[in-house]
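Archive maintenance. Older records in this collection stored only the sequence; we are now back-filling the structure field for every entry so that each record is complete. The fields below show one back-filled record exactly as it appears after the update. Entries are processed alphabetically, and Facilitated trehalose transporter Tret1 is next in the queue.

ARCHIVE ENTRY
Title: Facilitated trehalose transporter Tret1
Organism field: Frankliniella occidentalis
Length field: 509
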Amino acid sequence: MTSHEQPRPHPAWLPGKSPQFVATIVVNLIAFSFGCACGWPSVAGPRLSALGCSEEALSWVAAVVWPAGLVGAALFGPLTERLGRRLSALLVAVPLAAGWLILLLPQLWRDMDAAVAVEAEDAVNATSAEPVMLEDGGVDNILMSVLAGRAILGVGMGGVLIVCPMYVGEVVEDALRGQLGSYMPLFINAGILYVYALGAQVGWSALALLCAAFPVAFLALFFCMPETPMYMLSRGDERGAMDSFMWLRDPRRGDVDGELSTLKASVKRSDADGGGGHGTVNARDLVATRGSRHALVIVLGLLALQQFSGITAILNYANSIFDMAGSTLRPDVASVVVAAVQLLGSVAACGLADSLGRLPLLFASYGSMAAALGLLGACFRWPGLMPGWVPVVCLSFYILMYAVGSGPAPFLLLVEVFPAHLRALASQAGLGALFTLAFLVAKFFSTLSNALGAAGCFWLFAGCCTAGVVFIRLTIPETKGRAVDDIVAQLEGGAPPAPRKVSKADSIV
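Back-filled structure field:
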């Protein structure tokens, strides 16, 4: 039945603001699956290597999700407007679940688990130092299945970064938008930690099955969540928007009508700014004015710096990096420590951007990351010079400072430096850059490491972080506590206005 025929009452068992937290947590189950896919190559890489897979093949296993993510972003971006945020999110879970289930193919996991078991037995008995090799094209069969599963996962990952922030931004009220908007990186980092922690404890098949459980659970739970009020209003369905508000807000608070009126005004203003509708905005509008060009430089520059700081390579090859660095901790244990630190950094980032401001966090983030990578490079250049725990501390500190500033900043600033009618297009451009650069870093990290040496590679990443400090100083204004129209006016060349309180209409769009 339609929303006109079957309005959604506010759930009595979820008082006050609880439904907004529930909707945010449920939609971010697919962000958790995104994190699992990011961390999976670090766990699976040594197992594939034990079967005789080359470094070139392993680089494709790590990198294939990113070009596939471009397809996902291009697919799900338009679908959010045509089918709605809710149905699009449900569709995103399909390739995520399918990708993990492909990794459960019987021939794949049976050969893999058997090979790993033999390798472990050989290591214990010290009877063989040779990798376990499969016959009759077994390695090729496994590799093709892995690449297919990873590519399908990548399509879903592209959809996650489109749908999750859009859905959360449109279902939560102004006072909760900053806090609940930070849940996506939090869940992504939790997924990475989940895979790192389980990777050394369970077999190939069990790991894939445990990862597949999250998109499947999402499909069951998110089916009960409402469509966003903003999407309903953009389609002229005021009754449907009210029904959604009645589920998400507690009507006893008495502010549902007022918030709905504000949202209606915001939708009308967004359509007017866009020239009368969503379909009139095109790629030329991103470079049509001085302000939009400046905003594009900020967002694309931060995304480029984020990837050239080495984060994708470090997450994909964490186990191998610790092994090469001569850490006294087992590589799988060290990876879990780093992922746990990253999760703690994401928790801290939830409130720091509003309390300290964007620029102080960005300066501290990139400066600290440069120092950590420089010291990590020294561990590779002069092995044995420093204690074995130093690489773990360096990478943990690097990950912590990434999670606090460099990681969330591009997505936060994208909403603040672009006017409402350009944000969807800017999001697609930003995701295109993100997935392209992540692919390049993941694919060619091994090649770069062989050419420059591990030390040279990490020093190069440190140099990019240092360049990031200069870029931030020259291009990015402080946006804390300022309305979007003030920020946009400054980027257009006007004098920076005095900060003023952000209105409800400003924060909604």
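Update note: The longest helix spans residues 423-475. The radius of gyration is 24 Å.
Entry marked complete.
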